[in-house]
Amino acid sequence: MSGYAFDPCERCEEMMQPYLDRELTAGEMAEAETHLDGCAYCRRRYRFEVSLRRYIRTAVTEPMPAELKAKLSQLRIELH
User: Is residue 54 in some structural domain?
Assistant: First the structure.
């Protein structure tokens, strides 16, 4: 049995990434938006996810310093 009937935040959490990717149906988008409008916790999670995506997009476009690249190379483990 799914916890959705008792925990709408669980449903919102499941829908968060598809919502941000605009992959939901119009009905699902409306459901998520209604929940986000009324739930401060999920609204904070949504803002965090938006900020994280923005950070990742920025980080991907900035070149990695050679020192950091060298340190990360040293941390690699061999896969067997």
Answer: yes
